[in-house]
Amino acid sequence: MRYQISGRQIDIGAALQSHVKDELNDVVEKYAERPTEAVVIFSRSGHEYACETTVHLSTGLTAQARAHATEIYASFDGCREKMEKQLRRYKRRLKDHHRDRSQPVELAEASSYILAANGDAVDSEPESLQPIIIAEMETAIQSLSVGEAVMQMELKGEPLLVFRNEKTGGINVVHRRDDGNVGWIDP
């Protein structure tokens, strides 16, 4: 597994890096079969340290956790516990439904745009119907089954997920509805 451990405007020592690698490796190998990458970012806000951890698995799932504490080691320990809880909850589902996946999830490239919000009043007419593009980025669209897509959306804590359906090859969307259920759009 590849580790990327860094700090935002703080120095991360070798002792903290080795602690993070050892502890995270134990958790990930216990609950995930084929981890590929772990990104750990430490930052400081006032008197608190924050730790953000993202672990990418070959099944296409991405587990994310964040924790705050007054000490940097305690912030990582809290983050590790949240990550362990997430991976433990999803281990049975992944093991039962996706045991026969031998290859990593395929990714397709797509463009992602951020459009400027209209700061004018609701009643006023825009000058043109062309929105202002603030940023353009590359985004990876995963090739997943519908069940995997729902689990990925829940792991990320996102309101929706765009994915390529493995069975049909078409672009699909799963989303969290206002009533708490999950919606699936299959055009």
Please, how many helices? 3
**Rg over alpha carbons:** 20 Å
Given helix and strand content, the structural type is alpha+beta
State the distance separating the first and last CA atoms: 37 Å
Give me the side-by-side strand order of the main sheet: 5-6-7-8-9
CATH homologous superfamily grouping of the largest domain: Ribosome hibernation promotion factor-like
- H/E series, N to C? EHEEEHEEHEEE
Number of domains: 2
The CATH architecture designation of the largest domain is 2-Layer Sandwich
InterPro entries: HPF/YfiA_ribosome-assoc (IPR050574), HPF_long/plastid (IPR034694), RHF-like (IPR036567), RHF/RaiA (IPR003489), Ribosom_S30AE_C (IPR032528), Ribosom_S30AE_C_sf (IPR038416)
Subcellular location: Cytoplasm
Organism: Actibacterium mucosum KCTC 23349
Main location: cytoplasm
Blueprint (SSEs and pairs):
Layout: E1 2-7, H1 14-31, E2 35-45, E3 48-57, E4 62-69, H2 72-97, E5 107-115, E6 133-144, H3 146-156, E7 160-165, E8 171-176, E9 182-185
Parallel strand pairs: 1-2, 6-7
Antiparallel strand pairs: 2-3, 3-4, 5-6, 7-8, 8-9
Helix pairs in contact: 1-2, 2-3
